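Suppose you are handed a protein chain with no further information: no name, no annotation, nothing but its sequence. What can you learn? This example shows the usual starting point.
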Amino acid sequence: MIKKEMIAMLLAGGQGSRLGVLTSKVAKPAVAFGGKYRIIDFPLSNCINSGVDTVGVLTQYQPLRLNAHIGIGIPWDLDRNIGGVTVLPPYEKSSNSEWYTGTANAIYQNLDYIDSYNPDYVLILSGDHIYKMDYEVMLDYHKANEADVTIATMSVPYEEASRFGIVLTDEDNKITEFEEKPENPRGNLASMGIYIFSWPVLREALIKMSDQSNCDFGKHIIPYCHEKKQRLFAYEFNGYWKDVGTLSSYWEANMELISLIPVFNLYEEFWSIYTKSDILPPQYISDKAVVERSIISEGTEVYGEVYNSVIGAGVTIEEGAVVRDSIIMKNTSIGKGTKIERAIIAENVKVGNDVTIGFGDEKPSRLEPKIYNSGLVTIGENSFVPNNVRIGKNVAISGITVAEDYPNGVLDSGEYIIKAGDTR
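A reasonable first move is to predict its three-dimensional structure. Written in structure tokens, the prediction is:
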């Protein structure tokens, strides 16, 4: 029988609704990050760098691009005869077929997959965080404490604590209390959504809690283990970790990559980030182009000016165009004379000539003020912006737009254009 000490289950089915039009057609873990990567590359690379060679990736929402990106796991050295990476979508069982209704329900529906490896430990990961972590060190900590459950934690500002599961610990880091998203948090040690379970303990908890609707780790499994007097420990992580769940945090995390001393370093030899790369020619910067403090990916041609921006692969920035403080994803083209400031432009977008993006004063979004804020302009993939239009701040655009969509050639701050067929 196959025996693996620890396997990883990577939850990658989330919709990521707080990323607005960026995720209307793609799962959040498949969204581009740092020019050439996708968000899921970071936990997958952590696995292979930590010696975890068996990973189940649980997909659900808009899985096509994620499936194509992961393939059989070659870029992460996860194309193994025994183990490797396996994509696990919901499937039809003999008695019923059901979607994954919560993080723990997704794991419960794949008990047979986990059992087939007979692991001692199961590592639970989220597919939408940017960080580097050695899971082997966390496993050693789990074993040293003879723990049943180890939760990776980090200190967060008190004003943000109510967004997280909060743990209280004794002097040995043993968890004495756990509160999921408390209104009045009594501590600020937050769960990162990264868990190591001894498999018998997790298996029993999943089966016992399986009738809970939307069965979730923070709401059901961790409290159940705590009530059962299992040994729960907090593993405090002090490195860089970013939940890129909102447009502003996603934009900030990309901008941090190009700061003079990057907080998060993509260039470390001993902890590489692996990804599926297309076969592309090198970047081309013309003699008239200006590029300052930016990431320019392969296959991109720059004839204009780029400042403090992250540019994906296969992008064209025409003569006279100026891009500042922006993220432009792969295969997008920016027309001549276009000026762009503080924008997130998704894949395969065509922006016409002499367009201004991000002008004027901020106004709250009329579509979703909680999503579209911080003065950012967000343009969803496969969109088209015609020549000679001016676009304000906190704006969302999705779809093929025409001149008539812009009254007097202007889309004012806080406005939006979402074409039919786009869900957000």
